[in-house]
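User: For documentation purposes, I need each entry recorded in a consistent format: the amino acid sequence on its own, followed directly by the corresponding structure tokens. There are two entries in this batch. Please keep commentary to a minimum and don't merge the entries.

Assistant: Recorded as requested. Entry 1:
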Amino acid sequence: MRRAFADNSNTRLQLLSAAALARCGDPKATAFLRHQLKTGEPENARIAGWVLGRIGSVEDIPALQKRRDHSETALQRVFHQNSLVLLGDPAGLRGLADHLSSSDAATRTYGATYAGETRAIQTQSQLIRLLDDTVLDVRIRTAQSLLVLNTPPPAER
């Protein structure tokens, strides 16, 4: 992992190795991810934001909000929005509910996924309606999230 992180010839590999190292507490890897979120090319920033949504902290919320608001594509915006939800941003949670009723299938798919990951119980009625979605991936991820929402939360690590 450290060798891949040190090699800047493949930024995506560098980002994912940084994610693994940051998850284990490596401060340089965490700083790299935060730098990519703030200044990286949009797709690299999307990956960095996705990782920081899982392993970051409330200090990452302003940078994620800025990236969300200046995203070039809907997919980038959705990823940043959902990462905000994972970090407990209240506005992010309101946006998640909007994703579940989006006309865009990818947005609904990721919204359904994050509804379970964030244990957004308030979206349960919307999720139930998505079980009849025309897109198979939306239905599968919705069913998964409903199962997650109906089980006890995992013990804190």
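Entry 2:
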Amino acid sequence: RLPDAINRKLLCPFQYFGLHDNTDLSSVRWSRKGYDLSELERLYTGDDARVRLVLQQVGQKHREAGAMRALGFCVSIAHAEFMARRFTEAGLPSVAVSADTDSDARKEALASLRAGRVRALFAVDLFNEGVDLPEVDTLLFLRPTESALAFLQQLGRGLRRHERKDCVTVLD
């Protein structure tokens, strides 16, 4: 169990902030597969109000936002690129990565995050599992997650212990 693993120091503790961003999902179409991704994309990239709130909260909740190593989980490639662009413009160098990102560019993005040259990677359907990034100290859940398993996999990306972090900051 998660609390036992944290208490035994097998996993890193975390501080979790569920934030209200005033995003109204009631008009977004829903099907058996979940929310309509193109509608979510339009909603999340249509203006800067939500990204300003995310940046504000990163600054308030993270002790050293300028030194963070974050993973942001996005709804689409356009959303990831939008977030990376806005974070970079705010002084937090960031990169968008997806399954469409070629292997060398993805490896370079991961190396840049590990080395601290990049502060955040904004991902689309990547990094839920199968990647070892113990340096990650911040998780940004920027999309609705309908699956408890996907949520736990994404949370797990930050729970690996690392000598440079004492906890993981999670903004949802």
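Summary note for entry 2:
The chain has a mean pLDDT of 87.
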